[in-house]
Amino acid sequence: MSWKADATYIKMKGKRVCLNRAIDKQGHTVDF
Predict the structure, then answer these.
(1) pTM over 0.90
(2) Which of 1, 3, 12, 20 is the most exposed place for a label (fewest CB within 10 A)?
(3) Max CA separation in the chain (angstroms)
(4) pLDDT tens for residues 1-32?
(5) Residues forming a β-bridge with 6
(6) Per DSSP, which regions of 1-32 are E strands?
(7) 20, 30 Cβ separation under 8 angstroms
(8) How far apart are the C-alpha atoms of 26 and 11, rounded to whole Å?
(9) Are the beta carbons of 17 and 24 closer than 8 angstroms?
C-alpha cells in the first residue's frame, strides 16, 4: 500500500496549525 503524506499549514487566530493528511491510492483522505 502506497501512502502519500502531505502537510498543509493553516494560520488560525494567529497560530500556525499543521494539518497532516494521508491520501491512499483510492484518494481517501485520513486526517490525524
Answers:
(1) no
(2) 1
(3) 37
(4) 455 656 666 666 777 665 666 666 666 666 65
(5) 21
(6) 4-12, 15-23, 29-31
(7) no
(8) 29
(9) no
